[in-house]
C-alpha cells in the first residue's frame, strides 16, 4: 500500500511539473492563433486563425532563416558526434602520455563563461574573413567540452572485458570503437544529439554577434527582428516562438527512447 502511495505521489509531482512547462507553450500556441482584434481576450476555437503564420511566412525571410538554422545545426551536430565521441573514447579507453592533462583542460574549458570567449573567437573569425558565413557559425562549435565529458563518463561504464574479448578476436582499437563501443552507446549518443541540437538551435548570442546580413540570419536572430517589428502584436511574436520550438520537440520525441534506454541499460547491452 505504501509503495502505491509513493508511486501515486511521484506521478502527481511529475504532472504538476509538466504543467509548469506545458502551459507557457500552450499559451504561445493559443496566442499565435488569435486575430489582432482578439488579443487579450479568451475566444473559442471557431475564432482561431492561421493568418499569423501566413503573415510571418509572406512578410519575412522565414524560409531562408529556417534553411540557415538547419544547415548550422546539422553541421555542428555532425561535428559534435564525430569529434566529441572520438575524443571521449580516447580519454576513457586509450593510454597515452598527457591524457590526464587533456582531460583537465577540457574540464577547465567548461568552467570558463561562454561570454568570455566571444571576443577572442570573434577576432579569429574576422582574421579568417568568416563573417556572414557558415564557416564562422559552425566551425568554432564542432567541439563541446560538456559533451566530451558526458560521453567519456559513459564509455567508462562499459566493461573492459568486452574490449579484451574483442582484442582476442583480432580487432584493433578502431574496429573496437566502431563495432563495439558505438553500438553500445546509442543511448548516450541520443542524449548528445538532444543537447547539441537544442543548444545550437536556440543559440542567439553568437549568431547575432557574427552576422549583420539578413541573408545569413539563423531563426533565432530573424525572429528577434520580427519581435522588434511587431512588438505591439504579441500574436505575431508568439507565432515565431511556436515556429522556433516545434523542431526541438520533434527531435526530443525522436531520440527520447534512445536516451531512456541508455540510462536504464548503461553499458550492459550484449
TrEMBL record:
It is a multi-pass membrane protein. One of its GO terms (biological process) is transmembrane transport. PROSITE patterns: ABC_TM1. The keyword Nucleotide-binding does not apply. Its main location: membrane. The chain crosses the membrane at residues 12-30, 70-89, 101-122, 134-155, 236-255. It comes from the Bacteria. It is found in: Cell membrane. One of its GO terms (cellular component) is plasma membrane. Residues 66-254 form the ABC transmembrane type-1 domain. Keywords: Cell membrane, Membrane, Transmembrane, Transmembrane helix, Transport. PANTHER family: ABC TRANSPORTER PERMEASE PROTEIN MG189-RELATED (PTHR43744:SF12), ABC TRANSPORTER PERMEASE PROTEIN MG189-RELATED-RELATED (PTHR43744). This is Carbohydrate ABC transporter permease.
